[in-house]
Specification:
- It is built from five helices and two strands; from the N terminus they run ααββααα.
- The protein is mainly α.
- The protein has a two-stranded antiparallel sheet.
- The termini are far apart.
- The model has no long low-confidence stretch (mean pLDDT 75).
- It has a domain of 94 residues.
- A hairpin with a 3-residue loop joins strand 1 and strand 2.
- The relative contact order is 0.07.
- Keywords: Membrane, Transmembrane, Transmembrane helix.
Length: 139
């Protein structure tokens, strides 16, 4: 009768069996985290592909902005990309820097006029925080 090296009954009651199971579980969790990192990065790349940006490192992101010359580098980037650009941090976080108000309105899908829904919300807000309703809480 032979016992396999990966058999659960081989080290069932010993510390080495526990360590073997813990290491397998740890490697499995590490593999899941790497897959999550990869899928999130692919999703972010797809979401930000329509916004041009300066070159960035796949893991460190825009490391070129750090340091003493950060303001000059950002001003040069603003000149090259006049409306917006994504700024990557550590390869898995991206922030969209928008510095043109008209472009912001276009991205958010809003016009300069207030909508009917926005007017209803403001009316509810004014009713909730009116002087009469707040006087109840005054001491």
């Amino acid at each position: 009768m032979s016992i396999s090296a990966l058999s659960p009954t081989r080290f069932a009651g010993s510390i080495s069996g526990f360590l073997q199971a813990a290491s397998v579980l740890g490697l499995l969790l590490l593999l899941l985290k790497v897959a999550h990192f990869y899928l999130r990065r692919q999703w972010l790349l797809k979401a930000f592909q329509q916004f041009p940006s300066p070159p960035f490192h796949w893991f460190f992101g825009h490391k070129l902005f750090d340091g003493d010359q950060e303001l000059q580098m950002i001003m040069k980037t603003v000149e090259n990309f006049p409306s917006a650009f994504p700024r990557w941090f550590l390869g898995s976080r991206a922030y969209l820097k928008v510095y043109d108000p008209d472009y912001m309105k276009m991205i958010m899908g809003r016009s300069g006029k207030t909508s009917e829904c926005g007017q209803k919300h403001s009316e509810l807000k004014f009713q909730a925080f009116s002087q009469k309703s707040l006087s109840f809480f005054a001491v």
